[in-house]
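question for whoever is on the cluster today: can someone run the full assembly for these? two chains, 896 residues total. i dont have access anymore since they changed the login thing
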Amino acid sequence: MKITLKVWRQKNAKAQGQLETYQLDNVTTDMSFLEMMDTLNQKLIKEGKDPVAFDHDCREGICGMCSMVINGKPHGPLKATTTCQLHMRSFKDGETITIEPFRAGAFPIVKDLTVERAAFDRIIQAGGYISVNTGNAIDANATPVEKALADQAMDAAECIGCGACVAACKNSSAMLFLSAKVSHLALLPQGQPERARRVLNMVKQHDDEGFGSCTNTKACEAECPKQISVTNIARLNRDYLWASFTTQNTKEKNFSM
Amino acid sequence: MQLNSKIPAGNLPDKWDTYRSTVPLVSPANKRRIDVIVVGSGLAGAAAAATLGELGYNVKCFCFQDSPRRAHSIAAQGGINAAKNYQNDGDSIWRLFYDTIKGGDYRAREANVHRLAECSVHIIDQCVAQGVPFAREYGGLLANRSFGGVQVSRTFYARGQTGQQLLLGAYSALERQIAAGSVTMYNRHEMLDVVIIDGKARGIIARNLVTGEIERHGAHAVALCTGGYGNAFFLSTNAMGSNVTAAWKAHRKGALFGNPCFTQIHPTCIPVSGHFQSKLTLMSESLRNDGRVWVPKKIDDRLKDPSQIAEEDRDYYLERRYPAFGNLVPRDIASRAAKVECDAGKSVIKNGHAVYLDFSDAIKRLGKDTIAERYGNLFDMYQRITDENPYEKPMKIFPAVHYTMGGLWVDYELSTNIPGLYALGEANFSDHGANRLGASALMQGLADGYFVLPVTIGSYLSNEIRTGKIDTNHPEFAKAEKTVQDNLNQYLGINGKTTVDEFHMELGKVMWDKCGMARNAKGLQQAISDLKGIREQFYKDVRVPGTANEFNPELEKAGRVADFLELGELMVRDALNRNESCGGHFREEHVTPDGEADRDDDNFMYVAAWEYKGMGNEPALHKESLNYEVVKPVKRNYK
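^ ran it for u. tokens below:
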């Protein structure tokens, strides 16, 4: 296959960036998208040019490190697929592919296609955990969890924290990421004691980081490589409302969903 | 050098309890004045950093990724073992201990493995309390499945993403401590040297990967939780960034490297498809619960549509050779058996090697929905990569490098031979002997991080309460920093014609061909000279673009490959020295008449701990003999 690439090049966070055009003549359909990028970089290095910086690590769709907006879509054209799981058989011979970084004010560019997503860590720091020190735990089977709830919690917990939801959203909202963590913990009995303060603190941190508001376009769900559902956002909104009316001084009720 | 494994006295089942109850403690007021560095944020690193933070130590944690949640533990699929006996199928701490010792082909320490089995039950409790959404039955209790090398169901799992969920649990505990101020996190930082002052580990030199700045960090103890070195083979199931650099720098500073040749080749991976391939993808061992491995009996059938090959023309070779364990034999045995079939010309793909992993019987028996619920995400992953539907056609699989049992030599306290320098998880050599059983890596990483190091580190730190802050202006810090800077400038200054990846591929080919699934003296000797040539060429002809003062992934890779080039030679030398077959180490000279590994307990029942003697120089071998006080080593039998 012959492929034309238009790749966003930007030296660092402060520099101006622009799209540069590259030609690749020996792409095969079995190549993964990132192997195609490797081929480009090998060529650039040989030519004495600066290779394209992009984040990647596990290359099997689970670490959440890879990003890229490919032809306008975060993680490219396939549903439920990360960039690293994409293969060149999804593209046509002679096609031009435009590759840009995940764009959001809260995700500053490091270089080229690499962005900083530490804001997600800070949202988790605001409450995305259950406060249990090592050694505190009771026997794992002492608390049965209804299978349907455990499965729903797992559905939410599958989020890989890649940030595609933010890149897909016209408001750069991280509501899908945030709601996935809030839901995962709110659905489990272990998550109940901190449920109210968790949602309030995490939403506050989300807003403080400069992520925008959710206006229910569902673009995030459409682009999420792990198919995290927007019903998590609905659950977050209900929890947030409930928590806002509950203060530290009143007796917290177990809010059943 | 005398190696002291510091195994506590007493009966095996009482050792850890006795140790815990008598180890010196550090008072809460003193913990606040003690700094600990944790390098790596996978299961071992995140669990250790979080737990040490909870205890009140000042912790700094480093990872090279953009977030601690990305560490490669996240990619573990199948599950985590624990001796809970929730299935009432006869499991016990003793049985998990015994299975692990036997699985490791009697090349691990009894005391370490027994402690691991004891900790396993607490890990599951801790993870459930953190909100890890393990699979459950309709009654609300936890579900289990089976893994290779055992006859009980003791594996806990979260779909095919157990590593992800366990890591996110440890990550959330870590983030909680970061918020509490007890842990400071350094993302996108790579440790490039360990600083030793008066024989003790006193800090590290790290490079900020975004700015290129070289930083000095002092501490009273340093714990390396930096994973394995499978990427020495270039192609492996490891993440692209997984590397040996932190462990290797420690080795260069005097830390011994234990059993470097013990490499796990995982039997079920997606075969290599082209020369551009950058990594290999694992298909979880859990698939062997329901999948049947086979090749055609007749070589002429090998490229035939598998649905056209009649049942009597198929050779389910694992079921045939190992009726007691069938498709669930340990990984080393399953991998070798696949190689035997492919070497006999029965590979089911035209170019390269593969055997079938077939689910059609399971789908007939249980229905497609049940199979999809158990393995759906793995089937999807397979289809995405190969463009074939495993519900309709059997998977094609072949062994690939997956895990390294070898690593930094540590004593019972997880301390290397350098006081104050610890190694946890896959980075150490300790618990898996010559072959690791499935679902045991997660168990070991979390046991080391949550339950072992936070206890054992007290025995060292209780003597550090009068030390005071570590001064990073000490000449040893300056010296280490200069070495780091000189190395980076050296890579950048060569300005040759060959890329880092090209050298890495060359290294990988030598390692796979001569130090892979089967090894012999002639090939290993050849490999030593091949690797020397590649290394010399690297320092003459590598091309690393850019500068040291910017985000420069090629420069990061150059340093890692330079270390792999040295490590590769050590692996080969260890494989040459170990003139026996055991576990994943298969020397062609030592095969039993029925094709199994022929162990030599009289001469090789020891840990080979290697001391660095300078680049290109022959390393010095130290032996820690393994004393089996309780288990009687016998020939492993899964028939």
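summary bc i know u wont read the tokens: DSSP finds 17 helices and 21 strands in chain B. Chain B touches chain A through 82 residues (CB under 8 Å).
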